[in-house]
Amino acid sequence: MIFKVFYQENADEVPVREKTKTLYIEAESEREVRRKLDGRSINIEYIQPLEGAHLDYEKKSPNFQVLETSS
């Protein structure tokens, strides 16, 4: 399953909506997404599962690129 992760680049700062970034990652669950991103210094705001029409819509975005991580 593909997940869309909303995050802030600096985990030490207060989240500001205008600085929110997104990435896409393939995983079996939200827990696995968090495990795969554990070594990064980011502040995860929200993890959204993508499927069906929503996933098809996201794939049309020029920013859609699934992050490759080691498990």
Automatic annotation (TrEMBL):
One of its GO terms (biological process) is DNA-templated transcription. Its EC number is 2.7.7.6. One of its GO terms (cellular component) is DNA-directed RNA polymerase complex. The keyword Transcription applies. It is an enzyme of class 2 (transferase). The keyword Transcription applies. One of its GO terms (molecular function) is DNA binding. It holds the Pfam family RpoY. It catalyses: RNA(n) + a ribonucleoside 5'-triphosphate = RNA(n+1) + diphosphate. A non-essential component of RNA polymerase (RNAP). Belongs to the RNA polymerase subunit epsilon family. HAMAP family: RNApol_bact_RpoY. RNAP is composed of a core of 2 alpha, a beta and a beta' subunit. The core is associated with a delta subunit, and at least one of epsilon or omega. When a sigma factor is associated with the core the holoenzyme is formed, which can initiate transcription. This is DNA-directed RNA polymerase subunit epsilon. It comes from Geobacillus subterraneus. The lineage of its organism: Bacteria, Bacillati, Bacillota, Bacilli, Bacillales.
